[in-house]
């Protein structure tokens, strides 16, 4: 694969005889095509740092190449075109995020997707397995786990409610989680 400087030299040498104010369309196309081959995947990876969506990152890079192609005739130093293209991608990603934040503020909350019958069945079966495993644990561990993860109480409140020290609650939680893991592993293994 050619390096960008090799392509830039080729494009520059083709145009050096003309020395006109604008480059020919063929030269601009060659430069954009070479940049796409050399930088396309890296630019998508760069855009992914700014967006969480691969499709959005690819769209941003595509838009950057379109903008570069429109203005490629203005490029006087083809070896700097990659840096120019990276700055376009970064600016588009920033704009994309800004627009996304604005649209999120004005968008009504999305209606949750209704789970399929299969998803509901699997979730209910998983709950039954966890409840059955909880019932197999010692009484204190079961109480601590239910209060912590079902009612979402902090450790201090659980300790006060059960008349235990915070360290005892932490110990029961740790042992209870370990016991649940073993029971559920045995059930599935």
TrEMBL record:
It holds the Pfam family Sigma70_r2. Keywords: DNA-binding, Sigma factor, Transcription, Transcription regulation. NCBIfam families: sigma70-ECF. Residues 35-99 form the RNA polymerase sigma-70 region domain. It comes from Nocardioides agariphilus. One of its GO terms (biological process) is DNA-templated transcription initiation. PANTHER family: ECF RNA POLYMERASE SIGMA FACTOR SIGM (PTHR43133:SF50), RNA POLYMERASE ECF-TYPE SIGMA FACTO (PTHR43133). Belongs to the sigma-70 factor family. ECF subfamily. This is SigE family RNA polymerase sigma factor. GO terms for molecular function: DNA binding; sigma factor activity. Signal peptide: none annotated. Residues 1-22, 104-124 are annotated as: Disordered. The keyword Mitochondrion does not apply. Residues 128-178 form the RNA polymerase sigma factor 70 region 4 type domain. It comes from the Bacteria. The lineage of its organism: Bacteria, Bacillati, Actinomycetota, Actinomycetes, Propionibacteriales. Residues 1-15 have a biased composition (Polar residues).
């Amino acid at each position: 694969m050619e390096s960008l400087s090799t392509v830039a030299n080729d494009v520059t040498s083709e145009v050096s005889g003309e020395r006109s104010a604008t480059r020919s369309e063929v030269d601009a196309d060659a430069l954009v095509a070479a940049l796409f081959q050399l930088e396309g995947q890296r630019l998508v990876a760069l855009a992914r740092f700014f967006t969480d969506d691969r499709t959005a990152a690819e769209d941003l890079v595509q838009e950057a190449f379109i903008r570069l192609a429109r203005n490629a005739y203005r490029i006087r130093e083809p070896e700097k075109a990659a840096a120019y293209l990276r700055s376009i991608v970064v600016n588009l990603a920033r704009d994309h995020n800004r627009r996304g934040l604005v649209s999120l503020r004005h968008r009504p909350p999305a209606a949750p997707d209704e789970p399929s019958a299969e998803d509901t069945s699997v979730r209910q079966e998983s709950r039954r397995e966890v409840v059955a495993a909880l019932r197999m644990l010692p009484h204190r561990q079961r109480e601590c786990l239910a209060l912590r993860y079902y009612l979402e109480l902090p450790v201090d409140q659980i300790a006060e409610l059960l008349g235990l020290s915070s360290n005892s609650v932490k110990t029961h939680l740790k042992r209870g989680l370990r016991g649940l893991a073993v029971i559920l592993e045995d059930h599935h293994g």
